Amino acid sequence: MDMLEDLETLWFKCGIQEEDHSWLYLLGRSRGLMIKACAHATFFCKLLRNLRESLQEQQTSRCSMPGMLEDTPDDEELKVGIVGGGHLGKQLAHTLLRLVPIPPECLRISTRRPEALDEFKKLGIQCFYCNSSLVQWAHVVFLCCLPSQLPNICSEIQASLGKACIVYSFVAAIPIPRLKLLLNHTSILRPQYQCVEDLDRIWGANKEITAALQDPVILQATCPYSPAGGVILNLKWLEGVFYAAINTCTAKDMPHSQVLQLLNELFLSVHFKAYGKDGASCQKFQAQDFVSKAYIKNLFQKRPFPWFDLTAVQLKETPFSKYLSNSTTFQDHLTHLYCDSFGISLTREEQSEVSTGSPSQ
């Protein structure tokens, strides 16, 4: 695209009839959706990878204590699979490789045309056509296929999905209840985006997505609480991210008190350090932020959290819904963590600007 920068007669819009120019804004909207989708998937994978590393460190520490039986720690890195090798699948793969970063040996792509993915094969990424094999191997599976292809894909992978495998769907035309039925699976994440009429021209049409996400203006527009850019994220996705993190800990049979401590370290510690705050004096996550008060009465200290249905989390109100919506302090924490995970630090003024607005609930 950069090769055409000074050749206006070859630009895409020059081939459009003047009466159709009013539809060109859809190009910006499509690019904004693509950038946000890749950014949020990257953020999720970063969090999940960091969580798994923390769990492994704790497991290794317990095994090294005197008197403890030696156990085999789970030293596997986060494994990510992508179903679909089209435009979205390729862009997502590039972004995860460079910005998480996911090692090539921990990323696999299943597509009907693996021969068209030579650029990824040269990087050491396995590209093949066997969806069931992919989901058996992966911890997270991204669905980047067409809506018409999804029923067949779901029937192929349904029996191979493990309980803890997270299916992350980009197929906007298929709602969560239908996807749950097709997969017979509850560990599903599906971000939902709302486009507004006033579309800001900030998405960097001539930049690769990985480069665009290093631009502070573009990155801030992708923040979960930001309404900038004309594309708004439904915060139910963010609830799903937190409950997915809790499920990851529950799969390791971790007591809920330790889970809360781990979540506080992962989500809040970066912000405390950046602003010189005393973490002990700041509000932290409590059990009642995630489960009902009635359930807490029977939740003893060493007992794990229950296994959460991520589809229900994204469709219904949860104890965490109110926390996400009303805690401006947490919104600041999350905004700082989000930008920091991409290597960009915000000033207090910038952070305030990012959180301005009313994102979709």
TrEMBL record:
<feature type="domain" description="Pyrroline-5-carboxylate reductase catalytic N-terminal">
    <location>
        <begin position="79"/>
        <end position="163"/>
    </location>
</feature>
<comment type="similarity">
    <text>Belongs to the pyrroline-5-carboxylate reductase family.</text>
</comment>
<keyword id="KW-0560">Oxidoreductase</keyword>
<comment type="function">
    <text>Probable oxidoreductase.</text>
</comment>
<dbReference type="GO" id="GO:0055129">
    <property type="term" value="P:L-proline biosynthetic process"/>
</dbReference>
<dbReference type="GO" id="GO:0004735">
    <property type="term" value="F:pyrroline-5-carboxylate reductase activity"/>
</dbReference>
<protein>
    <recommendedName>
        <fullName>NADP-dependent oxidoreductase domain-containing protein 1</fullName>
    </recommendedName>
</protein>
<dbReference type="Pfam" id="PF03807">
    <property type="entry name" value="F420_oxidored"/>
</dbReference>
<dbReference type="InterPro" id="IPR036291">
    <property type="entry name" value="NAD(P)-bd_dom_sf"/>
</dbReference>
<dbReference type="InterPro" id="IPR028939">
    <property type="entry name" value="P5C_Rdtase_cat_N"/>
</dbReference>
